[in-house]
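Complex record, two chains
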Amino acid sequence: MGVKKIDFILGLGFITFAMAVYYIAPVQASGHSFRGISPAFFPRILAVMIILLGGLLSIQGLRSRNDEQLRFDKKTMVRILIVSATAFAYLFIIPWLGYIISTMLFMTSMLTFYGAKKLQIIIISIGMPLLLYFAFTRIMYVVLPVGYLIELIIY
Amino acid sequence: MLENIWLGFLTFMHLQNLIGVFVGVTIGILVGAIPGLTATMAVSVAVPLTFAVDPVLGISFLVGVYKGAIYGGSIPAILINIPGTPAAAATTMDGYALAKKGEAGKGLKMALYASVMGDTFSDLVLIFVAAPIATIALLFGPADYFSLMLFALTIIGMVSGKNMVKGLIAGLLGLLLATIGIDPIASTPRFSFDILQLQRGISFIPMMIGVFGFSEVLVQTEKKSKRISSVDIGDSKDPKNRVSAAEMKRCMPTILRGGVIGTIIGCIPGIGQSIAAYLNYSEAKRHSKHPETFGHGELEGIAAAESGNNAVDGATLIPLLTLGIPGDVVTGVLLGAFMLQGLVPGPMLFENHAPTVYGIFIGLLVANVALLIIAGFGIRFFAKVTTMPVPVLLPAIVALCVIGSYAIDNSMVDIGIMLIFGVIGYFMRKFHFPIPPLAIAFLLSELVESNFRRSLLLSQGSPWIFFTRPISVGFLLLTVLVVVGMILRSRKDRKVQVLGEDI
């Protein structure tokens, strides 16, 4: 897709978003108003400015001579989706499996995805989680999640 | 002043601080030397490591990472013709040509000496001018502060990307996102949609780690993994690989000029290292008796680029520490680190925490010495890092982003915020929206809003307060001048472009 079309659509998107902010502000940012300045005042000014600039972006999209094509091939998008989805999955398994096991699983899958060598995968996915765990719990006194499932097994 | 510097020296001189700076510089050079990993990413991922330690140690460590990474970027610029960080782009012009002549070692050494000298110059300026500027800043009222921030954010928005409108939109979105949470004056929740986690607002460190760390990983994911071959750095005893006294003397004026240009650029919000490097490079070429050698392995070219970009480092701390305004993203992240430590950058910092501030100043100078020692001895090792396949590192970076975001508040929600902003950051880059205005505006939003509303409360609702105070009027005029100037310039550029197309 060309930049021109994307800018035009994004401009309209920003206008819609900012209009929504403008209208929900009095409800979502209610509170004591003092001399006419309420908590909704500042967000509403910002919303108006975004509407103006969104309009300008759309006009630019229509009038611009530069129509550089952005790379959105399927393969790249699938790669990005896999990495993001794995990272979110990692976030959701931490409370269940605990920090160490989740991180090991995450590192193994990601290193395999990026095409690391077998030995690298083994060393990094076992070494790094343990190293981080000890550094953060022992040196910086951060309490890392043990994991509900692990707790069930231990206790 | 001298008393404070001595006090700072005593505060800094503990073994742990020295180790912290050396470790920071080493990490910085390593990250900077790997093409694709930037100084901003290094500093933002490193911030969570510092919250549990003393501010002098924590901030000096981060500054070490920052300086190390900016220098580290020159290593691949010289050896493989790819700048390790955007700041080193100008270094490739002569660096790689020199390396191809078999003088890579000489290029790397000149880059190091020029970087350290540029850095030191800029740090000394910071140390001597910061306190006087802070004293002036004490006179600022809420209206003046608001106008100053408006000025800084407008410049950052307009110069950060190719498209000014996109930069300004990014800045406004940053301001708006920060209004989620508790209202700073009325103390009521805003845009929380009755979700408890949103009432806390979006935590800025996880957000920064997301937009600069995780999004960088996604950008790198697009690229295919390939091994790059590097130029051999040769025998260090070979005179071809050393910088002679005569060569150093020849490059001195350029390095000093780089110090001055870099320092001035560093004080102005939003411009940054790569422009300072290019500017000093073109100045060096203009003053040279043999400008034709530039671009073909001219040692002075490397000295120009590296002294220029490193001299920005110390100077960017001037607006941060004296006014509380971060001039670029790295100082934005540093502002986050200061706040994490319970220190609020701005004029009161010098009044209330003088030993800490001067301790950090000494840390800056020590970081330069550390850079000289570590890069001087470890150059062979760092040269190997430049050819490291990035993909192997990406999962490790994500793991650091995750544990870092969690550790600040022991919160899983913060990991989610980091990941979401990582994806947002990735698409912003894809659509050519600059991230610095978003991040800096987000950080400054509460100050912008509370100063704005406080001014209006003082003036009983009349906006004239912004136009009657001299300091405020000054900044507003500057803002208008900058906006008009930038629009006129971009029109002129467009005309030239259009003419070029016609021909």
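Note: The radius of gyration of chain B is 22 Å.
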